[in-house]
Amino acid sequence: PANPRMLRSIRLVKLLRGLKVFRAVQAVDSLNLILKSMKASLSVFAWSCLILVTIQCLSGMLVSQLLADFFEKESEPLNTREQVYEKFGTLTRSVLTMFEVSLANWAPIVRLLANNISEWYVPCFLFYRCCVG
Q1: Per-residue model confidence (pLDDT) at position 27
Q2: Could you tell me the maximum CA-CA distance found in the chain, to the nearest angstrom?
Q3: Can you tell me the distance from the alpha carbon of 8 to that of 26, in angstroms, rounded to the nearest whole number?
Q4: Can you give the three-state secondary structure of the chain, one letter per residue?
Q5: How many CA atoms lie within 13 A of 26 on its CB side?
Q6: By C-alpha distance, which of 106, 105, 121 is closest to 70?
Q7: Residues 132, 102: Cα–Cα separation, whole Å
Q8: Which of residues 6 and 110 earns the better pLDDT score?
Q9: What φ, ψ does residue 77 adopt, rounded to 5°?
Q10: What pTM, to 2 d.p., does this model score?
Q11: Is 18 exposed, middle or buried (0-12, 13-18, 19+ CB in 10 A)?
């Protein structure tokens, strides 16, 4: 038969291992709090992204429509029209450019429009950059 003292010692060792796991869980408690906070804010993040993408799409469509006449002007240099078309010629290009204006280097795009089309694009893009970017 088994020695009762030995069985008690084994139970004590198992209990101590359980306490170590409990301590590790307490150490990860702050990480658990952060993960719960992130999970709770996912819906707000999704709605914010949806609103920003919608604003970028609408802004891209607006700028494309404003520049549609410029693309067809034969009095303007072909090189300049090609540069502007490269940025705002299609909906996809225009939305990508507005994304770039929001999150990246927006100055070359605004300078292209201000130098070749109208300086009124500068305050419009600055307002867009302050509100969206």
Answers
A1: 65
A2: 105
A3: 27
A4: CCCHHHHHHHHHHHHHHHHHHHHHHHHCHHHHHHHHHHHHCHHHHHHHHHHHHHHHHHHHHHHHHHHHHHHHCCCCCHHHHHHHHHHHCCHHHHHHHHHHHHHCCCHHHHHHHHHHCCCCHHHHHHHHHHHCC
A5: 6
A6: 121
A7: 6
A8: 110
A9: -60, 140
A10: 0.68
A11: exposed
Residue 50 corresponds to which tokens in the numbers above?
A: 């949806």
Name the residue with tokens 């992204």: 49
Q: Write out the two tokens for 6.
A: 């030995």
pLDDT band at 40 (very low <50, low <70, confident <90, very high): very high
For 81-129, how does the pLDDT look when each residue is reduced to its tens digit (9 = 90+)?
999 999 998 999 999 999 999 888 889 999 999 999 999 999 999 999 9
Q: How far apart are CA 101 and CA 111, in angstroms?
A: 12
Amino acid identity at 41: S
